[in-house]
């Protein structure tokens, strides 16, 4: 916001300087006056104006510089940082240089005005000599003299105003110098604080670096231990995997052997079962035969017993 405000102030100063240059350029030169008789009052007024003109020109330069400086407002110096102080100081230096250039320009313009006033005075003398020769053009000469007086009075008023403005500009320049000194003092104080803070930060960073290096070495040692443990664990895992694979292969061989044994046992079991079934059938037939024989013997025995009883 301060930069925007400063830019606006510089633009206003430039516009004021341009308007002043235009006003100085637009001021009409003194009209060529016809000859007329000179009077004592005119000579006294011209002599007084010649004495006052250089003082008014100096005052005009001072007032213009002060006005251009007073048009720019500076914010409170309590709420800006170190970089803002540097920028403000640089801007103040630039503004002082520009105001000095404007003062030189106004001095040149005042010299030009003095020369023009001298030429006007010389023309007035010539005109007064011509007035003695040409009395017929007295009315026109009077009118031109009145116009010239009005023009000179306006110039005097303008010079007085410029002298007042120059006094105001001097006061503003003194204020700016005081502010510049205050800014320098604050800048020195801020630089001291910054150097102290930076030295303290550097010491803290050195301590932090030492601690971080020790911690890093400890972490490296721990990492090496973990890496060794991981390598050992991987080796043990590979050995265990080999043992498991070997055991699995042995187990497959045992299963195949057991499978062949079970097949042989099943074949023997089937053979023995078939032989047992055949033997059972034979026993059944024998049992049936024995039962038939027993029945026949019983019947015969019963018949014999019955016959005996009879």
UniProtKB/TrEMBL annotation:
Keywords on record? Coiled coil
User: Ranges of Basic and acidic residues compositional bias?
Assistant: 41-60
Keyword Coiled coil set for record: yes
Query: Where are the annotated segments for Disordered?
Result: 1-77
* Bias kind Low complexity: ranges: 67-77
Residue ranges of coiled coil: 82-137, 266-293
User: Which superkingdom heads the taxonomic lineage of this protein's source?
Assistant: Eukaryota
- According to UniProt, the name of this protein is Uncharacterized protein
The organism is Reticulomyxa filosa
> Source taxonomy lineage?
Eukaryota, Sar, Rhizaria, Retaria, Foraminifera
């Amino acid at each position: 916001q301060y930069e925007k405000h400063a830019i606006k102030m510089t633009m206003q100063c430039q516009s004021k300087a341009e308007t002043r240059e235009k006003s100085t350029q637009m001021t009409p030169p003194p009209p060529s006056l016809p000859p007329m008789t000179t009077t004592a009052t005119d000579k006294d007024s011209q002599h007084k104006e010649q004495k006052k003109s250089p003082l008014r020109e100096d005052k005009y330069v001072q007032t213009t510089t002060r006005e251009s400086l007073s048009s720019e407002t500076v914010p409170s110096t309590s709420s800006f940082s170190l970089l803002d102080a540097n920028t403000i100081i640089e801007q103040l230096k630039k503004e002082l240089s520009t105001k000095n250039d404007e003062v030189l320009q106004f001095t040149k313009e005042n010299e030009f005005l003095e020369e023009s006033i001298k030429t006007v005075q010389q023309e007035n003398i010539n005109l007064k000599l011509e007035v003695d020769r040409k009395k017929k053009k007295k009315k026109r000469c009077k009118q031109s003299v009145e116009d010239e007086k009005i023009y000179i009075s306006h110039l005097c008023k303008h010079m007085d105003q410029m002298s007042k403005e120059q006094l105001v500009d001097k006061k503003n320049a003194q204020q700016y110098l005081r502010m510049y000194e205050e800014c320098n003092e604050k800048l020195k104080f801020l630089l001291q604080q910054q150097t102290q803070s930076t030295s303290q930060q550097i010491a803290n960073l050195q301590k932090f670096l030492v601690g971080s290096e020790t911690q890093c070495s400890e972490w490296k040692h721990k990492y090496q231990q973990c890496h060794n443990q991981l390598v050992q664990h991987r080796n043990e895992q590979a050995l265990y995997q080999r043992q498991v694979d070997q055991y699995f292969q042995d187990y497959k061989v045992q299963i195949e052997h057991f499978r062949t044994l079970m097949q042989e046992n099943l074949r023997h079991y089937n053979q023995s079962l078939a032989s047992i079934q055949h033997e059972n059938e034979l026993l059944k037939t024998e049992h049936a035969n024995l039962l038939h024989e027993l029945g026949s013997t019983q019947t015969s025995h019963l018949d014999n017993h019955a016959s005996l009883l009879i």
